[in-house]
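Q: Second attempt. The first request was missing the SMILES, so the protein and phosphoenolpyruvate are both included now.
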Amino acid sequence: MAVDYKGRIGNLIRDARKHRGLTQTQLADLLSTSQSAINRIEKGHQNLSLEMLARIGEALDSEIVALGAGPTHLRVQGPTTLSGSIEVKTSKNAGVALLCASLLNRGRTTLRRVARIEEVNRLLEVLNSIGVQTRWIGDDDLEIIPPREFDLSRINEEAARRTRSVIMFLGPLLHRAETFDLPYAGGCNLGTRTVEPHMTALRPFGLEVKATDGSYHAQVDRAVGPRRPIVLTERGDTVTENALMAAALHPGETIIRNASSNYMVQDLCFYLQKLGVEIEGIGTTTLRITGLATIDVDVDYAPSEDPIEAMSLLAAAIVTKSSITITRVPIEFLEIELAVLEEMNFHYERSEEYVARNGHTRLVDLHTKPSQLVAPLDKIHPMPFPGLNIDNLPFFAVIAAVADGQTFLHDWVYENRAIYLTELTKLGGHVKLLDPHRVMIEGPTSFSGAELVCPPALRPAVVILLAMLASKGTSVLRSTYVIHRGYEDLAERLSALGANIETFRDI
Ligand SMILES: CC(=O)N[C@H]1[C@@H](OP(=O)(O)OP(=O)(O)OC[C@H]2O[C@@H](n3ccc(=O)[nH]c3=O)[C@H](O)[C@@H]2O)O[C@H](CO)[C@@H](O)[C@@H]1O
Ligand SMILES: C=C(OP(=O)(O)O)C(=O)O
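A: Got both inputs this time. The predicted holo structure:
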């Protein structure tokens, strides 16, 4: 029987379109064609020229139709019980901040044990395109050597548009060029994420940014410097990092108020200290920075472990009712999460604390025990550190789904993240969206396998994968780039604990 290639390619296009959150009409507009043509293509009723395939790939920002290089999918057989030990990797968010901060240094930066994730790969592509030399040493140490001058005219726009972190080039670059353009920051589809706080924070350093034609046009007035404390309008992580990086190369003192004291900000501060920048107030909301006119040192820094990956692994153990050991857990940034879990009747043991390779962050090993959880009495909601981390909130959806009773989650932060948690219903969960920010979850759930496309948001995508581990039968999770954006070899590492996950591609 002839293989239905047109049908398969149609499915791939449909998946990629949904993954980008586009309707058929929106895709048709991008391709200057009609919605009915897209419908025919997706149904496999249309002959496609190679040129059309290439245009579709471009419009969907996906290599989906490049033979042999299409998206990866996961096939999960459940239910699973996990066993053994797993080590938490270093964080995506410190990793990307440090890559941007390396632009401040004319010397060589060596970062130890950087997570091998797509978000880092995209930023490396951007750095390479402007002349920065980067090289992996061994498995996961990264050497970064800047050029004498950056060539911003050659910036890899495609890579830049796939990550929001590129906005953190503004802080370092404002010291290196008087005018420059950066492509608009992209990243997960979590609803509108403002960049205005970044502009407010960097204006005191003389930066003015105009956003037109898909680019930020930056102009720097060297005569301008902060005359009074910079008060951030939001206690955001990357905005604090941008202000810190601008302050690092501003000779003299800068004070930042309402600063985030979150884990990635702390890692950035420790790195900047190694560069010779003086910083007081690390871990608080007021940072006092004494910057330098130039920074030219060979520096070695080891960022700390990822509290969000640690939370993901805890959730994996909880939903599969497994006994596993999770090592190198940055407990300092998971204390509220664990306190809530304890209230929900989660049993575990924790080791004595030890110090991360950055010389500061407190780590522990956690040993999980199978527990029958109960819903918490109060709603679960995130807060800036030291509150429950916003990126950890989605994991409470799948945890609540296996707990007895009703749990309310309130995601006040993102306009468009809680909505993806309702995908759990396709696996048998009872998740009700009360409004775009609040979900109500009724447990316990008896999950059963299904085929789903990854939601276009990292944490909800992992939440679905974890529910699949607990689901009876076969599940398929399609288009997993979004997971690789933030996790190194997650499927392989869960499989090493006994999960049955197979990675595959179409065609
Ligand atoms: C690379 C990186 O480090 N990314 C993290 C960083 O993104 P990032 O720093 O880019 O976060 P955003 O600036 O997008 O802030 C997230 C959302 O929170 C809102 N907001 C934030 C702070 C505040 O005090 N008030 C407020 O309303 C913002 O308007 C936005 O809607 O922080 C987010 C929120 O912790 C995390 O989800 C991201 O993983
Ligand atoms: C929202 C996240 O990250 P980013 O800022 O990279 O989109 C996340 O890590 O969950």
